Each structure stands twice: as structure tokens, then as C-alpha cells.
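quick one, 259 residues, struct below
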Amino acid sequence: MKPLVRIESISRCYSLPNRIGKSWALKDVSLNLPDGQATGLVGESGAGKSTLARLILGLERPDSGHIVFDGKNIAVKRRRLNLTRQIQIIWQDPMIYLNPYDTVAGLISEPMIGSGVTGRAVLQDCVVDLMHAVGLSPDLAERRPHELSGGQCQRVAIARAISVRPRLLICDEPLSSLDIPHQAQILKLLLDLQTQYGLTCLFISHDLTAVRKFCTQMAIIKDGRIVESGNTMHILHNPLHPYSRQLINTMTINAIGLK
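---
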């Protein structure tokens, strides 16, 4: 399968306070994201998962290495490629980045207006279609985030992300702020949308249940390095690296029926 994204020997370090040294968030990371498939990135807190997401988004620059999107180095040609539209993200807690003063309709339509993917004449119809697509009633269009549940807010965030028809969707712990019933609902929604739109997804999580259900490929990261990657079920059933075995054992895989 041809990768949509190739991450080639990426490294990223940060200066420590008082200039006493540097800390490597990522070190020589390489990973392919197959076009039209979901890839899970699993690791403990502080392993470098969100740093990698920020690099792909262009919010930070790598200290070395390349990120290649559809054959082009995105660090060099990001503006020319209009990758703001082609790469979107769903963050962990939607309440942090949804404007509390805007309505649901305004939040969903904002990216479409900014990117020019939809004319204003049909904007309202597009918003309604997107609300239906993510399982929101159009009756909620004039509500604001504080009037919604956590699951509804995450659906608004998903509608925003897919409104500009991205090719790559980064999901950075999209379930962790939700209760268990809403986690199952949002995961099913993401599965349906990934299939419907043929999205390439990078699914960042510490939840092996979700990764097992959503991702055909996965990679395990420790201390800024990828220690193992490949087919999800193969790794979960036959982890090769000692850290992979330790991580899988500590993430209660008995509960998800893998033994």
C-alpha cells in the first residue's frame, strides 16, 4: 500500500530550563501512514506522540529528518500545497479549542469559509449535512459548546475537521476525555467516517481496545523512538520488542479479548 505520509528519520529536541541541556522528544523516528488506512500510535505519556502530531501539522519544525506528504516535503512546501486544509486534527478535549461564544453552526462553518471549499450560498446546507454525518440533530445548530455534552462537543470537533475534506486526519487521544458510553459512540463514528471518506488517519492513543478496533497498522513509541511497528493484530498477539510486551500486558489486554 502506497503511503500518503512518510516520516523519515525525524528528531526533535527542546532546551531545558536555565539552558542546562536538551531533552529529545523524538529521536530518529520513521513511520509510514498508508493511504486510506488508520495507523495507531501507542505509548505512555511523554513518549513523543503529540510532538509527532505537531510536527505533521507544521506547528513545529523538526531538528532533522523529513515529513513527506503525497511525495512532497511538507516542511518546505506547506503553504504551496495548502496543507492546512489537507491535514486536520481532532484534539483530546474539544472544550479547550471550541470557541465558547460561537454557535455549533458557526463552529462547523468557520473552516469552510476560511478555506473557501464551500460557497456561502450553500453553506447552511453543508452544515446540516455535516451535522447529520456526525450524528448531531440540526436542532442544535444555534447552541453553544457549554450547552452540549462532552460527546456532542467532540462530534462538533469532528464535523469541523472533516468539513474541509482533508486527506489526513490526526486523532490525538480523541476518546480520553469522554465517559465509556460516549467513547464507544465516537469510535464507531470515526470508523464509519474513515470508511466513508477514505481518510488516512493517525490515531494517537493509549487505549489498545480502540486501536485494535480502529487501526489496521500500529506503532509503539518509547522515549521518543519507535520500537515496533506493523500489522495491529500481529503486534498485539505477537509483540517482538520487550517494551511492546510490557506495554500490552499493562494495558489490560485480557479485557479486550486478546488472550
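The beta strands are 3-15, 22-34, 38-42, 64-69, 72-73, 87-90, 168-172, 200-205, 217-222, 225-231.
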